[in-house]
Amino acid sequence: MEPAVEPVPLVTPVEPVAVRPRRRVLRTVGLIAVAAVIGLVGGTAVGYGIQADREPTALPPLNQPDLAHPKPLPKGQKAKPLPASEDLRTKAEGDLRKLLLPKPAGAKKAEFADADGWMRVSSFASQFTRPGSALDFQLDLGIRRIAVTSWVTGKYKETEIRLVQYRSDDVLGAQDFVEDQQAYMPDEDFADDEGTELKGSANGRYYVFPVQKKAGYLDLYEARAYFYRGDIAVEIFVVDTKKISEKDIRSLAERQLGRL
Predict the structure, then answer these.
(1) pTM for the whole thing?
(2) CATH fit for domain 88-259, picks 3.40.50, 3.40.190, 3.40.1000, 1.25.40
(3) How confident is the model at residue 65 (pLDDT cuts 50, 70, 90)?
């Protein structure tokens, strides 16, 4: 009789790290800091006095006197706008689902896949350990919409990719969310590893988790990738009952990054 496969949610984002209160500074440290500032100010004053009594020194010539500058366009002529294929903002403002990797040939539909390729913000927040706090955190980051795709290959291997888009304002939502998720990965309850840098991204990383073993069940393997491009954060999750190689998760991440 084949061992059972324990139903494990494909993705369970962890909630944001709480801001820790600052520790009180000891009085001794404060006194040392004050003394250091007084010494610095005194030294600076003496330095200014010495410089004031010296003759001015001519500055050396520039090393690059013939720097090239863009020439202004002729009067009445305007710069041509970028074609849509090269304009990243145009891509991001369109149907976000079109930027998702297509399902590979022969892949089956995941059992709990979203029917139309969109995930509600409330559904996204419900997968955190504390949905209410997670929802507040996402709203503070300016979450806008989530496009998602998933598929199954082989017998149990399931893949899910999410594009989480944030509003463009003074809060760097995509970057903050990705860095928040990456902060958990070295924990022993997750990847227990710093991960590997994803080439071509600002700070993307991918992770291969240690195998999870439980009596009476098949072994569970997991890999993830987190990165962002502009206002879009990307999450990639792969789970299987067989070992997942770094090459598999890296290839997925690189191809998805290329589509952005």
Answers:
(1) 0.68
(2) 3.40.1000
(3) low
